[in-house]
Amino acid sequence: MLALFVVFGCASFLAQGLCCRPKEYPTSAGQCCPMCSEGTIVQKDCTSQSGTRCSRCKNGSYMNRPNGLNKCLACTSCDSGHGLFVLQVCSETTDTVCEVIDGYFCKDLDVTGCSAAQKHTPCRPGEKIKEPGTSREDAQCELCPSGLFSEHGVNCTDWTACSVTQVKLKEGNESSDVVCGSSSRSHYIVMPPTLLLVLTIVALLIRALLGVIGYSLFFN
């Protein structure tokens, strides 16, 4: 960046035969002035009687190279809402270094740290975590094999095997277990109350009728 600044500065003044040396910058007045050091910027250009007057970068800004600029660079903000935290605070000469919080991975990493993060991809029901996510890589998922299930997308578990005294009420799949129920050799018929009352009355009438018939046969 500095080399480009010097090249363009020289190009703009070639017509006047002016090309500044390293660690100098061209001014609008057609002079070459000493650059300000890291952590400072130009407050006033040099003159034939005085050198460049520099001022320090204020809080929230920095300058990480010798320069002829009149404005410091803004410090990067690490947004916790987007998965970042401050690993190294900004100083006069260095930018903020951001790092990702747990559960996120860095999508945009450079020499100054992470500038963009994203949540680890959650595995879906029917899948398990193949590779846990890290601060640099997303999580990897894979489907559960046949005979296993994953309800919450973490680990695959074997289907439940129903015992000999149970029956399978529901088949298992990749996201839910087999459902077993109790099995009974005795089967009962559940009747509505009205039908049960009618059958009781009929039974009593039949019993009474049989009693009358038996009585008649006995005396005849």
UniProtKB/TrEMBL annotation:
GO biological process: apoptotic process; defense response to Gram-negative bacterium; defense response to Gram-positive bacterium; immune response; negative regulation of alpha-beta T cell proliferation; positive regulation of cytokine production involved in immune response; positive regulation of T cell migration; signal transduction
TNFR-Cys repeats (start-end): 19-54, 56-98
Signal peptide: 1-17
Annotated Gene Ontology cellular component terms: external side of plasma membrane
Molecular-function annotations in GO: transmembrane signaling receptor activity
All residue ranges annotated as the TNFR-Cys domain in the record: 19-54, 56-98
Species: Dissostichus mawsoni
Protein known as: TNFR-Cys domain-containing protein
Keywords from the named record: Disulfide bond, Membrane, Signal, Transmembrane, Transmembrane helix
InterPro entries, sorted: Fas_rcpt, TNFR/NGFR_Cys_rich_reg
Lineage: Eukaryota, Metazoa, Chordata, Craniata, Vertebrata
Superkingdom assignment: Eukaryota
Pfam family, one: TNFR_c6
Transmembrane spans: 195-218
Disulfides per UniProt: C33-C46, C36-C54, C57-C72
